[in-house]
């Protein structure tokens, strides 16, 4: 069975500091990987995705993530955060099955950027 | 592109009434849509998969008679919470797939239901 583990439920960080949100997954088959961001009382928005190719993926708002197959990780990073980055971040994997792809979400990491 | 819109964003209703939430794909056709429920500070819980022109597939533990899903067209899926009770109060989110299926999802803005 597939699973997604976001290792930190909350990450407080000062403005302009770097941040890393960790995500590990388990799967016996190939997966596609995603990071979504959710602002309060809103739906989810795609930050970035890894489908194939380069393992370093760049997304919106200055975020990037690196796919590490041997460590089954897909950590999200930003070199300098802003107050506006305060939000909930979800790591997700999609795995193929007979009906298409099934998406599994992590529990989420709340990033709190302090002034 | 790939815009998904939910309506209403907020709804308050009395216990015992039914509430309908709409999920529309505005600029693409969505043969498959998903409905989620999200409790405060928690992840998304998949409730059901909605396929255009066929019955929805519900996840284990989700009452299909309580949460009616209709996907009558390629751009519209609706979730009706029947005989709502305070415990049904939650944030409901829909998502849709577009084009070549890679598992990428496009989400609506969410609908917050409060049952008094």
- What is the overall number of helices of chain A? 0
> Which two chains have the most extensive interface, and how many residues on each?
A-B, 25 and 24 residues
Helical residue percent band of chain B:
under 10%
Please identify the oligomeric state: heterodimer
Share in β-strands of chain B: over 45%
Task: Extract low-pLDDT stretches of chain A.
Answer: none
Terminal CA distance of chain A reads: 41 Å
> Helices and strands of chain A: which structural class?
mainly beta
Sketch the major β-sheet of chain A: 6 strands, mixed
**Got a strand count of chain B?**
11
Order of helices and strands of chain B: EEEEEEEEEEE
Average pLDDT across residues of chain B? 91
* Helix/strand structural class of chain B: mainly beta
Bulk shape of chain B:
globular
**Series of H and E elements of chain A:** EEEEEEEEEEEE
Tell me the overall shape of chain A: globular
Task: Provide a count of the helices of chain B.
Answer: 0
Q: Based on DSSP secondary structure assignment, what is the total number of beta strands of chain A?
A: 12
Roughly what fraction of the amino acids of chain A lie in strands?
over 45%
User: What's the gyration radius of chain B in Å?
Assistant: 13 Å
How is this structure best described in words?
The complex is a heterodimer of chains A (115) and B (116). Chain A is mostly beta strands. Chain A contains no helices and 12 strands. Chain A has strands at 3-6, 10-14, 19-21, 23-26, 31-38, 44-50, 56-58, 64-68, 73-78, 87-97, 100-105, 109-114. Chain A is globular. Helix content of chain B is 0%, strand content 51%. Chain B has strands spanning 4-7, 10-13, 19-25, 32-38, 44-51, 57-58, 67-73, 76-81, 90-96, 106-107, 111-115. In chain B, strands 2, 4, 5, 6, 9, 10 and 11 form a 7-stranded mixed β-sheet that branches. A 4-stranded antiparallel β-sheet of chain B has the order 1-3-8-7, with no helix packed on it. Chain B is globular and about 40 Å long. Classes of the chains: A mainly beta (115), B mainly beta (116). Chains A and B meet through strand 5, strand 6, strand 10 and strand 11 of A and strand 9 and strand 10 of B.
């Amino acid at each position: 069975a597939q699973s997604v583990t976001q290792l930190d439920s909350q990450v407080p960080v000062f403005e302009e500091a770097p941040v890393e949100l960790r995500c590990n997954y388990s799967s016996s088959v190939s997966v596609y990987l995603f990071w979504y961001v959710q602002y309060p009382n809103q739906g989810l928005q795609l930050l970035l995705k890894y489908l194939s190719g380069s393992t370093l993926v760049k997304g919106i708002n200055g975020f990037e993530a690196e796919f590490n197959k041997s460590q089954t990780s897909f950590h999200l990073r930003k070199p300098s955060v802003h107050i506006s980055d305060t939000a909930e971040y979800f790591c997700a994997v999609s795995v193929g099955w007979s009906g298409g792809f099934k998406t599994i979400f992590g529990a989420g990491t709340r990033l709190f950027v302090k002034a | 592109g790939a815009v998904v819109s939910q309506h209403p964003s907020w709804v308050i209703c009395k216990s015992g009434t039914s509430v309908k939430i709409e999920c529309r794909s505005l600029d693409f056709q969505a043969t498959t849509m998903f409905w989620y429920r999200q409790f405060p500070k928690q992840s998304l819980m998949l409730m059901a998969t909605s396929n255009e022109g066929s019955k929805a597939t519900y996840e284990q533990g989700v009452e299909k008679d309580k949460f009616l899903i209709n996907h009558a067209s390629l751009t519209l899926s609706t979730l009706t919470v029947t005989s709502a009770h305070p415990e049904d109060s939650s944030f409901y989110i829909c998502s849709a797939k577009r084009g070549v299926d890679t598992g990428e999802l496009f989400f609506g803005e969410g609908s917050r239901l409060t049952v008094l």
